[in-house]
Design brief:
Elements: H1 2-13, H2 21-39, H3 55-70, H4 73-84, H5 93-108, E1 112-125, E2 133-138, E3 142-143, E4 146-148, E5 160-167, H6 170-175, E6 185-188, H7 200-204, H8 206-217, E7 222-226, E8 253-256, H9 258-270, E9 275-279, E10 283-297, E11 302-312, H10 322-340, E12 348-355, H11 363-374, E13 381-386, E14 394-400, H12 406-416, E15 422-423, H13 435-439, E16 444-449, H14 454-457, H15 470-489
Parallel strand pairs: 5-6, 6-7, 7-8, 11-12, 11-13, 14-15
Antiparallel strand pairs: 1-10, 2-3, 2-9, 4-8, 5-9, 10-12, 14-16
Helix pairs in contact: 1-2, 3-15, 4-10, 10-15
Bound molecules: zinc ion.
Zinc ion is lined by residues 312, 324-325, 358, 388.
Length: 501
């Protein structure tokens, strides 16, 4: 438990750990060490027996797949959520409305033990307008499309106008401490590149996380960054900044759409004095409430053993949160519902959790894990996984289980293969909201999605339900239904073979 507790502390210390990328970088390090150590533990001089899934379970998982590939349920759920609730920023009345929606939807679909687990959080909102007032005033006046980053401050009522100190990258800004940025607007570049794994995000996101600290410490009046996204539309990408040791920005921090960032780069190259005027209304608004919405399919033999799946219910305030993370909500609710419709419930309980306040720092996920540590039910969670990377096809099945459970995961992987899914390694993260559980030792499964175009829409006004391709969504539901059913049904201890720490 030493490594686990230490990891949990790391999770707690990082105010913002969003997306799948940081999770990997954090967890692979520590969890990976443990699994490598286990995998090579030699026991006896006998060949290993591959795990065999009983024929009736294979037949059931095949039937689930066939049903899922024809089912409209996930798309119906996402459409309903984004139409009737829309944006659902953590801690706002919109998020509360989403919780009411979640409870009703779970009940309508026949889930059991439907409930909300509330928790408190610090509320940040954009203020009066989604579109802040931002204008390039010199040398070539024209409007700019920019948006406050989560956690940023407001300008004075009359607004702010200042010259731009241009830095082509996060590293350039960090390295160049000679340039006086006092009274200026700091602009930081760095362009994100698209990849199936979304791996370009973490690197490009460094400027969003903590460039505000350097800018503020060096006397800047505002921070502007190039959008952390791959879109060439004039939609700027928002997202929460990091707040080490609880420090909060006193300056506005904004993200500029890619075409507008290009404009700033071109003007900067001329060497002329560039000025921007801005008016923003963002700020922290004290305490508010959020909550995790839970629904279950109670297991027929071991109801106390839990397979936990889900997505997050909150979204950014600009789009309707269809991909992030209406998709995860729809995929996991639909997969569980298909399992609930089987003639016989699986052996263990399937718990679907729609986490609150993920985008603002995994607040719901931490509240969930903390409660289970306190009431000592954490070890009842036999395996977990979250869907939070849009609605692109699943292409890889990863895991993070004990060495003795690997053969069973490989067997599940073979069942998933006809869906075009390859077997990944055993060092996977379970998704953002699974981080606190994983850090505390809960085994994980992972259905990696194709994120090639995810950052075209992610955290922008363009994250809307029309971006979802139905056949890809159906493939997701098929993979999730099969994985979840088998995880809940098979007689496997997913922790087996892990070294006690
Ligand atoms: Zn998300």
């Amino acid at each position: 438990m030493i490594v686990s507790l230490r990891m949990f502390r790391i999770v707690q210390e990082n105010t913002i750990l969003e997306g799948n990328f940081m999770i990997r970088s954090l967890l692979i390090g520590a969890m990976g060490l443990a699994s490598v150590a286990c995998a090579h533990a030699q026991k006896e001089d006998v060949p290993p027996t591959p795990f065999v899934i009983p024929a009736e379970n294979i037949a059931t998982s095949q039937a689930l797949k066939e049903t899922a590939l024809k089912s409209d349920l996930a798309l119906d759920i996402i459409t309903d959520l984004t139409t009737k609730v829309g944006p659902r920023l953590a801690g706002t009345p919109q998020e509360e409305k989403a919780r009411t929606w979640g409870v009703e939807k779970f009940k309508e679909l026949g889930f059991e033990n439907v409930r909300v687990e509330p928790f408190e959080l610090d509320l940040w909102t954009r203020g009066r307008s989604v579109y802040e007032e931002v204008t390039l005033t010199a040398p070539y006046p024209q409007p700019l499309y920019a948006i406050s980053l989560g956690g940023g401050a407001a300008t004075p009522e009359e607004g702010t106008e200042a010259s731009v100190a241009y830095f082509k990258s996060y590293d350039a800004f960090k390295a160049n401490t000679e340039t006086d940025v006092t009274g200026k607007i700091v602009f930081v570049g760095d362009r994100m590149t698209a990849a199936r794994t979304g791996e370009g995000y973490g690197w490009a996101n460094r400027k969003r996380r903590d460039a505000w600290i350097m800018a503020e410490d060096r006397g800047a009046v505002a921070l502007f960054i190039r959008s952390v996204g791959t879109s060439s539309n004039r939609f700027a990408h928002t997202g929460m900044m990091s707040f080490p040791e609880g420090r909060r920005p006193n300056i506005p921090a904004l993200s500029v759409s890619n075409p507008d960032a290009d404009q700033i780069e071109r003007i900067s190259a001329t060497g002329e004095d560039m000025k921007i005027r801005l008016k923003t209304f963002a700020g922290w608004r004290g305490k508010s409430m959020s909550g995790n919405v839970i629904g279950e399919i109670v297991g027929r033999e071991n109801p106390e053993e839990i397979v936990i799946i889900g997505g997050h219910l909150d979204s950014w305030d600009t789009g309707t949160g269809a991909l992030d993370d209406g998709a995860g909500v729809g995929i996991t609710m639909a997969a569980a519902k298909l399992i609930a419709d089987l003639p016989e419930k699986p052996r263990r309980t399937i718990r679907v959790v729609l986490f609150g306040a993920e985008e603002v720092g995994l607040v719901g996920a931490r509240a969930y894990a903390k409660e289970r540590m306190e009431d000592e039910t954490l070890d009842n969670h036999v395996i977990g996984s979250e869907s939070d990377f849009g609605a692109g096809e699943v292409w890889r099945f990863g895991s993070n289980v004990g060495a003795d459970a690997l053969s069973a995961m490989d067997a599940i992987g073979r069942e998933l293969a006809p869906l075009g899914i390859i077997r990944g390694n055993n060092k996977s993260g379970g998704g953002p909201d699974m981080m606190p559980l994983q850090a505390a030792g809960v085994p994980m499964g992972r259905l990696d999605q194709n994120g090639e175009d995810y950052f075209e829409f992610h955290h922008t006004p363009n994250d809307t339900v029309d971006k979802i391709e139905k056949s890809e969504l159906q493939q997701n539901v098929a993979a999730w239904a099969m994985f979840t059913y088998l995880a809940a049904e098979l007689d496997v201890d997913y922790r087996a073979g892990r070294e006690e720490e």
